[in-house]
Each structure stands twice: as C-alpha cells, then as structure tokens.
Amino acid sequence: MIDKAREIALKTLYKIDKEQAYSNIVLNDEIKQNRNKINDKDIGLISEIVYGVTTWKLTIDEIIKKYSKIRLKKISPWILNILRMGTYQIIFLDKIPKSAAVNESVNLAKRYGHASSSNFTNAILRKIEKEDYEEFFQIKDDVERISKTTSMPVWIIEELMKNNTIEEVEEICKNLNLRPEIIIRINKLKTTKEEIMRKLEDANIEYREIPDMEDFLVLNKIKNIENLSLFKEGLFTIQDASAGLTAIVLNPQEDENVLDACSAPGGKTTYVAELMHNKGKIEAWDIHEHRTKLVEKNAERLGIKIINTDVKNSSEYEEKYKEKFDRILLDVPCMGIGVIKRKPDIKWQRKKEDIEEISQLQSKILETCSKYLKRGGYLVYSTCSILKGENEDIVNDFIKNNSDFEIVKSGLFNIKPDKEKDGFFICKLHKK
Asked: What is the reported pTM?
C-alpha cells in the first residue's frame, strides 16, 4: 500500500521540477487539496521531504550518480524524484529506518514507473549509506567540497568568494541550509511588546527575544501562524529581522513624505508606517497590480492609514516626483541568495548570467529614484542578496556618478545569514 504523505511529497516535487514553480506555493496547494486525507503528522513529513529534497538536491544527485549506471537525465522524472526522496530519508532523517525509506520508495516506484523501475529503485537505495555523504568532506578542492557538502551550485560559491574568505563562504553555505525560524514584528500601533509576550504565554507559545531588535520575537514550535487570532487582529506581522532592519536604518519620522519604490508584499512598507506612528504619507509602488493589493491587505490588517499604493515601474523616470520625498526605501529586485533557507528553489532557478541583467535593473532603479529625493534627504538601498555585484558594486558606481550623494557613516550593513537572520545588504545614502 502507498504511503499517502510520501505520494503527496512526490507529486509536489514533480510539479516543482516540471513547472519551475516555487516549492512553498506548490506544497501549500497540494496540502490544501488533500487536507481531508492527511493529518498534521503527515503534513510535517510532506514538508520535511519536499524542503529537504529541494535544499539538498545537488548532494543527493551526486550520491545517486555513484550507484546508477543510467545517467540522471535518462531516468524518468518520477523515478528520479523517488530516488531523491529515498536518499534524503536515508542520509538526513535519523528517525526513519532505512528499511522503511527503501520499502516506501519501492512501493511508489511500482505505481509511478514500469516493471523494472521498482527493482532499479530498490537496488540503488539499498547501497546508499550515510558514509556516502561523509566522503564529500574529504574532497581536497575547496569549491568542490563546499558545493557537495552544502548542496550549493559552484557559481554561487565562486561569486561569494569575491568578498569573503573560503572559511566565511563555507559558513554562509552551511547557514543557508538551516531551517528558517518564524520571526514576528510587534505592531506597536495596536499593542505593546509586554502585552504580546503575555498573550503568547497564555496561548502556550514559546518565544525568545532578539538582541538589539526591540520590535521582534522568535516563535518556537508553531504551525499555521496566520490562523492565530493575534495575527488576524493585526497585533503582529511575520518578518525576518534583517528585512525589518531596512526600515530602522531608514529612520522615518512622523509627518514626512516617504517613498517605498519596490514595496510588495508590504512588510517593510508597513514597518515604515509603524515607525512613523501612522502619521505622514507613504507612496508604495510595485510593477504589478496584484502585488500592490498585497500591500493594501497588509496595511488594512495592521490598521495603517498612511500608505497610498500605485502600480509603477520604478526604473522609469517621472518628472512630477522630482525632489518630492524626504526619505526613500529601495529594496530592489535581486537574486535572493541571502534568503535561500526560506526559498531553496532559488539555488536551482537562478543562473550566473542573471546577475548582469538584474544588476542593470538595480542600477537603473537607484539612478531614477535618487532624483525623487529632496536635498538633505536619505535613501536606503537594500537587497536580500549577498553578492558583491548587486550590492557594493551598484552603490560604488552610483556614488562615482552622483557626487551629491554620500554613504552615511555607519550606514552600510553586510548581514551574513545565520540562525536568526537572513542574508541582507543595506546601505544608507544622504543627498547633500
């Protein structure tokens, strides 16, 4: 008999590969469609397998290659994903006995392959042991070792080496495989930190504070957070501390006119509004209307009244906005390398060639929107990437060509990913 949880995990992985879709979106859809057939324990296993296989795909494929006489490209996508699931369970999940991982994979192969598929699956998975992964740590070449032990594409490692030591690169790649924590930002327009902590304790929800991040808490062992009444009432929002830091660095003041030129889905925009105590005006732009709706929805839940959304391309100059804003936040589109632990698909969907195209867009947005800043105003440029070509290089080129701008002293942050924070780049500029 087929295990339902593993079958749903298989279908999810197949769709991610076939449609180049984001794992979290496909996973949520599959769970919704099958909610009446599975329990919370099943959902936990499905999520574990889907995120685990997506995160560790490169490493897993290297192990499968060791024992398969058939090239991976020639293996049916269904069977390849069954092999990946089995390998992930054997190598990384200590609580699942190897026999169970093999047998459940063979059962799936019987249904999703032809007669010989189950024998092929059985033969390969029976040979795989945890030592197959341990062997990668003995590789002498640094780049190859890091790639195979952290399941990171070589091109990302090489890009990170441009502004990090090899030890730092290895640490970054390890941290990008950590399970992301759930971090909330307290909405002080509606509540206080003390009140939220008391309510979390009443609901038996474990939490801890983050040093130097007054408005943020890490929640432990919580599921379906958006179903909590505290969330629905707008007492908090979900936001990583690094993302929140962009608004803190911007330091908006009451009654100012602020622009968030790449605002959706609105996490940073709403925090800017909260820091302004809901007094002043914020223009929130995005290139797609359905994304500006997300900003509006977030603002409404949090009780924010000062955000005006508009569908705009921030790279196209409009004279009417010239020197109109006191402060500008530019959290520009980027490669997203700093948030791989939240979106492991990024590793496989992004290519080295994408850097040039995206950095040109980043430069254009910065150049265009800088003209909208008043004299004496402040602009924060940020990305959730950690590649030099999207960060320091963009800012340095901009400063070189715009002598009326300067980097604010202590206003540049290169945040490396760790257990609590995503990787982020933040730079505060002052228009003289």
From this structure: 0.94
